[in-house]
Task: structure prediction
Amino acid sequence: MNKDFYINFLSNSEKAVKESQGAAVFQKHADNLPFVDSDSAAKCLHNAQLRTIENLDEELNRFEKNFANKHNSVFWASDFNDVFSSLKQLFKTHKVKSVRLPNVKASTIFRELGIKYFLKEEKISLADDADMQFFAVDMMVADTGSLLFVNQSNNSLSKLSNNRTNVFFVTVDHILPNASKVEVYQQLVSYHNGAAQQDMFLFKGSPNCNNYLFIIDNQRSTLLKEKQLRQSMTCLQCGRCSDVCPVFQTIGEEPYNNVFTGPVANIMLPWLETIESYRHVLYTCTLCGRCEEVCPVDMPIRDMILDARHSFFINGQIDKKDKKVMSAMRKTALSRSKMNASSMFRRRRLRKFLSSDFRRRRKTPPLSKETFNRLFMK
Result:
């Protein structure tokens, strides 16, 4: 992002409202035809998303220009503190005592912000017929200034245009460059969720209500600095990689202690949170490549994990203990005499690499009785 935009991006701009012509509401239902060319569509969408991420400041500015008008207001939030600070002001302005909140478990952004706990602290009750309602946006569409919702219930859609005050939440990476990519996105999300083609809804505003949109960074801009890791921001969060990851299937979600889990989270979490807290998740990957085989947008997840590990190494962000172990393993791998040692000697060296805690919980992996030379010749 350029400097001027980044400064504006990190500020809580409650007055970032621009005047333009009114917008319209319309709904479009998907046809019940099968999506036959998912590979080419995935490549098309991925390339478009990459270009969008490379020019994220321009695309976000373009979206805001097309979306903001006398009924629509845009708030730029650097993190959840900015969001909550602005929400408190909105509660006072509109005298809000109750909020309509959709299924929190189904929305990553609500869980990431901890919106349910915030409402509880502010003593705002949850109700279906509330003073204000919240929506999680699936995608922003830059060229039309529209908000895209996929698989929303008809009840939610009717309330969207009739309720007096709507608040929308979206993160900076959830943006499509133009409306021509909307159907491709919808088809991919439906196809890779194993569901029938889902309805989509595009919303650009309504004269019957006030609409407030929060565009949230929450550390995502730190990923933009890492050129090789930007592709992780094109993730559709379909969950297919987690379904086939042998490590995730073994350890589950609990060790992550985060909204984001699975192979792509291994890349993103050290930057979205702190490197000290989530550095270890990068080294849980076995680089088997199963995640890449099922990724709908063909992200090179293994390469990104290796790039992230390399970034840690050259920036000195590896623990001294881990660095010592890695150095010893490197020396062993480069030494032909050590690689050709007897299996008993190699097992003894391996035990030095493995922690005592690991050895207590698991058996030491078996080693081949043949030397490295013989295995290489075979």
